[in-house]
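Reviewers of the previous submission asked for a worked example of the structure-prediction workflow described in the proposal, so we include one complete record here. The input consisted solely of the amino acid sequence. No template or homolog information was supplied to the procedure at any stage.
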Amino acid sequence: MSCPRIEVDLDKIRRNAQTVVRRVGRRGIGITGVTKAVCGHPAIAQAMLEGGALGLADARISNVQRLRQAGITCPVTLIRTPMLSQVDEVVQLCEASYNTEIVVIAALASAAIRTDKVHGIILMVEMGDRREGILPENVAEVAQQVMAMQGVALNGIGANFACLNGVAPTASQMASLCDLANEIEGMCGPFLKTVSGGNSANLPWALGSQDTGRINDLRLGEAILLGVEPVSGDRIGGMHTDAFTLVAEVIETGEKPAPFSIAVTDPALTKFRIVPNNGVSTRLVLAMGHQDTDVLGLSMAEGCILIGATSDHLLIGANRSTLRLGSEVRFQMNYKALMHAMAAPDIEVKLLTDLPAKQPRQIQGKSEHLTLV
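From that input alone, the workflow returned the following C-alpha cells.
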C-alpha cells in the first residue's frame, strides 16, 4: 500500500454513531453527522447515517457536491453562512443552511424561486462563542423578515460553542436558547422544527441531569469520528478513538551530529525547534510533513518522540531497532491533524471495512451513559 495514507475503520465510526445516537436519543435529541473534517467523504458519511444520524451537515459546498455525486440523498445542511457567490449551488444541493445575514437569505430566496424550490433557513444565534451569529435581541426581527419572504422557510435556530473561544456551553446558555425559540414562535407563528444546541462540545451537557428543553438536534463530527470531547480532549466512555490511523514511511535512518549554535531570527521558530534525540537509539526521517498534516496533533507511538518537521519531512526518534528503511510508522490524530490530512492531495484514504458488521454489545463498553474517561 502507498504512503502516506489514512486507514479508516468504518465499523468503528458506525458504532460511535450508534452509541451517541442511542444515548442522546433517550433525551429527545437527534444527531446530524458533520462531514467537514473528512472533506465530505461519502463512505464515512454513509457510516454516520448507518449509525443513526438523521442527516448530514458540512461547511463547504464542494464537500456537499461530493456527497451528492456519490448518490447520497439524505437531507444535507450547509452549516457555514453561504457565500453570495454560491447561493444557486446551495439551493440546488442543500435542503437547508445556517444563516446570519438577511442579504444572503434574500439571495437564497431568489435562487429558490428561480428553481421552484423552498430552501430551509436556520438562524445562527451568537451565544458566546463570538464566531458567527445574530445577537439574541435581534433574532426575532430577522425571523420576521424571513417569514415575509417567498422561496425560503424558517426551519429553526441554532447556536455554536467551543470553536473560537474554546468554552463549553452552560446549562444557562442552553436554557436561553430554548427561551429564544419560544419567543420567536410567539412573535412569528410557525413551529420551529429545529433547535440545534451546538456541536460535540455539548455532549456533557446533553447527557447531564438537567432538562434539555427545546433542544432537539446536535451537530456532531469530532465525537463520532474520534470518540473525544473537544473542549477537554478526553475520550468519551464507550467510544472508539482509533477509527483513523495515519501511516507514514521511513525514508532515512541514522544519526546526525549535534546542530550548530545559530541565531534564531524568526520568533515563531522558537516554538518548534529540533531537539536532541536523547534516550532513543534510532533517528528516523519519514516522508510526511507540515504540508500533509498538523504534526503537533499526532500521537507518537510508545517508544517514539517527535524531533522536528519541515514541509515534507517528519523526524522522530525511536528505541525500536525493528524500524528501518521502508518501515511504516503509525500515528493517531487529533481533530486538527485529521482535517489537514484528509485534505492533503498526496495522502491516500484506505477504507478498512465497507460493510456494516454486527459486533457484540460489550464492544461499546460497560457504561450505559456517555461519560468522559
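The longest helix spans residues 171-188. We consider this example representative of the routine output the project will generate in years two and three.
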